[in-house]
Amino acid sequence: MKTTLLGLIILIALSTSAQPGNNANCPRKGQNQGENFKERKADRMAEMLSLTEEQTKQIEKLQLENQKKMLPLRNDLNEKQARMKTLETAETPDLKAINSLIDEMAVIKTKMAKDRAANHQEVRKLLNEEQRIKFDMHAGKRGMGGRNGMRGKNCMYNN
Hints:
Order of helices and strands: HHHHHH
CATH architecture of the domain at 64-131: Up-down Bundle
CATH topology of the domain at 64-131: Four Helix Bundle (Hemerythrin (Met), subunit A)
Strand content: under 5%
Distance between the termini: 46 Å
Structural class: mainly alpha
Shape: extended
Helix content: over 70%
């Protein structure tokens, strides 16, 4: 009886671990798909908008300039988020320091949002009327899935 029960438990455990869960399409932790995803996204946008080669080059240049602006801001924000975690988990948290750090992070996030908005408008300037309409319609779909690729709400982790 015990052997049969043990065998049944092992069989159930093996069969459930072999089944792909909701995360089957999620990138594995540590897997770097950033560049490939960005390239595919850019290719899809170029195709959807019927961009000319010149428009594609100009947009790529704008994106690179924007990435150069964003990198130090992201790094600074990441450092402040790490500091926030340290402050919040201290034996005796310093609420004044926490609130000050929140204000500093808000300034960085605001700067990043303004830079993204400016870049978005620069890209729009490069497009003709038909392309702008398609671009604007697509831009409303940029939520979690758009920014994080396959790491949306259905994935177990978001690194």
